Amino acid sequence: MAQSGSADDRLQAVVRLIASNMVAEVCSIYLLQPDNRLELFATEGLRAEAVHNTFLALGEGLVGTVAQTARPLALSHAQQHPAFAHRPETGEDPYLSYLGVPLLRSGRVLGVLAVQNATTRAYKLEEMEALETVAMVLAEMVASGELVNLAALHEAELVDDRAMHHHGVAISEGIALGHAVLHQPRFHVTKIIAEDTGEELGRIEEAIGQLRAQVDAMLSGDNLGRAGEHREILETYRMFANDRGWLARLREAIESGLTAEAAVERVQNETRARLMRQTDPYLRERLHDLDDLANRLLSHLVGVPLTAAGDDLPTDAIIIARNMGPAELLDYDSDKLRALVLEEGSATAHVSIVARALGIPMIGRVEGITDLLEAGDAVIADGDTGEVYALPSSEIVDSYSEKARFRAKRQAQFRELRDKPAVTKDGIAVSLTINAGLMVDLPHLHEAGADGIGLFRTELQFLIASAMPKLSEQQAFYTEVLDEAGDKPVTFRTLDVGGDKVLPYLAHAKEENPALGWRAIRIALDRPGLLRYQLRALLQAAAGRNLRLMFPMVAQVSEFQAARELLDKELARLQRLGHPRPLDIKVGSMLEVPSLAWQLDALLPLVDFISIGSNDLLQFFFASDRGNPRVGDRYDLLSPAVLSFLQHVVAQCGVHDVPVSLCGEMAGRPLEAMTLVALGFRTLSIPPAAVGPVKAMILELDAGKLADFVNERLSLPDSSLRSQLAEFAFDNKIPL
Ligand code: PEP
Ligand code: MG
């Protein structure tokens, strides 16, 4: 194989050698072409003219069947097989028996290697295995371009073949052009034939031992994700890792002469081929588990780490993974991270929260992407639309480069507004603060020129930890946040877990309606120790400085009072112990449950401020699950109903002279923010990336004029004022 000469000559030499060793009259190699046809590339025994002139479709003839099923086929009466297709140009008529094996690499069929005999011959299992081993070597050489210069032969088509356009779910906005980094790198086995089978058997035993220990540790350890689903997956892992059939097949493959790595690859190829034929989605899903397990086994064998986080990353890394936890994403050098593309993933997953915090685009639910991409492939990820392009054409690259330049230009314009106060044309100052929750958010506070942090989601520290953060850890974290924020105020929201934010280490029964269930302040009041610890950490971190805190999901005044009492107990404790207390403490309530809006006369005298959590509030207001795509956008926030409701709250707060802000996602969208200012909001808390666009809008707004415009329309029967508001913005040249 190492001999020089043209690609065809070398392949020809290979088939001749195989034919003579297998004592077969015919040996042929077919390679899968970009148009999904199998082309005869070399043959010993068939007519030489047929080379490059014989084509079979996937599924056509015996060769097509082997390629389509990705399984070997051994027949003593080939012509009797229902798929047999006669190709007169090859002169194969006299050959009765047939043995074909697929050329597989990382589960992908690259072609078929077949031998034929004139007599009716029953091929032995060892012969089939030997041919499969040769096919593995060939596949490796074909893929590496060593044997056939595929790239030169089919350059244009090959690029097209893997060039892909996928549509996933947009999870974190932004656009990235970069290069694929496979989070769990696929190992390409290059050494296939073992020198010492005994040694290889020893290596596989050892690696399996390590794998089992790893799976056991995952199951018993701290880093077990949420109970239930996650646990089930790991249990499946354990089952596979101890599956005797799997282990026996690995040993057999080594005994047939393969290295331990090649044996893992070979067994995995067979498993893939078997599972791919399954129609049962559950079983097909298990293929991912087995792939992951095989990959882990290879990583133990080769002794390299399981994820690419520690590797030499390209400076424009687009991480491709089936799924990952938030901590895994944080393991990557954030200077080089450009985007994250997952096969799974959802907007509320913790890794998504981290991706948004890091400001990188993220796309989820891109089916099959980990199998389709190779490390180093050029990729474009569009977090605005959910589009992913692999090996994009130059036109697509050009258009996206243009889009990225446009975004950068807008960002630069927003940066210029950084130090400008957000004041409307009629002189109303609006305070723009940001939503945050992790240390990585803190630099945005200053970069965006925000006035403070209006919502600090303290649960994120809890969500990304594998065990309940200790008092000292919580305190250290809050201290760091306050240090980083400097003189800008931070409003800490106490733990808001439950609902879609389940802590793996906090026992939580499955609920029919988690959004309406045991969450946030309900948990805090039932488990007061949890809240008291957090309050203690906050009070200690803020010693000698100002502290602002608020409670989530308050549905009735008594809940606020009970939480406030816990705070007072903690303050009394500080006093008792002679510890320093914060200079000033402001305590607020979130308004996320509509019932609270009808208790404002009782509540407002007790609070220092109100912050409206519109994400939750509006799903309760319309009784429409914000995470359910069928109803998520059924109702519009810019409806007279919502706007009247918000106006009522603002007016009540005005009467009691209590500051009110809004910290849900809606405040970050310029059209919605514009409307909120018209309704009387003077503080908005928004994602850092929204500060520029919202400020640009405010600078061009005449709030009084818009307030009149909105008031005139609040009693209309319309389900939404969106288009009328957009028209107002357009007519008044307000940038949205
Ligand atoms: C909200 O509900 O609007 C809110 C800010 O809280 P979260 O999104 O964290 O539930
Ligand atoms: Mg909420």
From TrEMBL:
Keyword tags: Cytoplasm, Kinase, Magnesium, Metal-binding, Phosphotransferase system, Sugar transport, Transferase, Transport
Catalysed reaction, written as an equation: L-histidyl-[protein] + phosphoenolpyruvate = N(pros)-phospho-L-histidyl-[protein] + pyruvate
Keyword Transferase carried by entry: yes
Required co-factors: Mg(2+)
InterPro entries assigned: GAF, GAF-like_dom_sf, PEP-util_enz_mobile_dom, PEP-utilizing_PTS_enzyme, PEP_util_C, Phosphohistidine_dom_sf, PTS_EI-like, PTS_EIN
Compartments reported by the entry: Cytoplasm
Biological process, per Gene Ontology: phosphoenolpyruvate-dependent sugar phosphotransferase system
SMART domains recorded: GAF
EC number: 2.7.3.9
Keyword Metal-binding (UniProt): yes
GO molecular function, a single term: phosphoenolpyruvate-protein phosphotransferase activity
Class of this enzyme: transferase
Occurrences of domain GAF (ranges): 6-152
GO CC term, one of those recorded: cytoplasm
Family membership: Belongs to the PEP-utilizing enzyme family.
Protein name: phosphoenolpyruvate--protein phosphotransferase
Species annotation: Candidatus Phaeomarinibacter ectocarpi
